[in-house]
Predict the structure.
Amino acid sequence: MAEPLRLMAVHAHPDDESSKGAATMAKYLADGAEVMVVTCTGGERGDILNPALEGQGLEENIVAVRREEMANAQKIVGFEHVWLGFHDSGMPDEINGLPEGCFAAVPVDEAAAPLVKAIREFRPHVILTYDENGGYPHPDHIMTHTVTMAAFEAANDPERYLDAGDPWQPLKVYYHMGFSKKRFLGMHEAILAAGKESPLTEILEGWDSWRGDEKDASERATTYIECAEYFAVRDDALRAHATQVDPNGFFFAVPREVERKVWPTEDYELARSLVESTLPETDLFAGVRENAGTTA
């Protein structure tokens, strides 16, 4: 009997899994795949970003609060979950740099060890992570990229991480490519065409100065996953991270009917593949289904 397809998403902080790829995960879970989220840090240095929760003293117990939020998001989407246990790096202090012992300061070989163990235990066929810039240049996001790629290379090597379980070879790695100017511009123009004021005006006006010479995600994307029917699941998962997501803020500014019509996909760049598939893709498991004896 064929085994199920397995997808692993590696993220820096609790809430990243809901803002990046949650609808994709919900879609594959509904299709019968197994999905695991790996969270590298506990988000210990996160601020309270929801104005409605300011002044309630939640910062004093932020670790437990964010663990509870993560558990709620997990229930909503339905994925399995693993904490790697590293400490949130925060943004570097201009004078002191990164805090001692934080995730971004851990040697890569050491930081990759628990992820190799998670890969060997879960045996994913496909892994999702961030690009070399971390999606945006937070030290933990960049480190997540570095550690994920290191673990991808090491997981099938029987001479490395001898105590981490039997070797396993993931077949594909993708980078999230959701923060696309083309995507935002399409929704912006659709809102204006409907005679309404666009909440994306300010973001688009400052886009080039903010993103600089970085190649836009729409130019890098290779793989487009139709998952508009799961945007509501994604939104519910986002709201579960109540300290980090303002329900009246950026993530919910665009009307969902506009998003579903203009950009009904979550987009990815195929970064590494040990199987053949034809680009552009509409399935993260393209080439895997034919080579791994899997279902879903």
The mean pLDDT is 94. The CA atoms of residues 53 and 143 lie 30 Å apart. The radius of gyration is 19 Å.
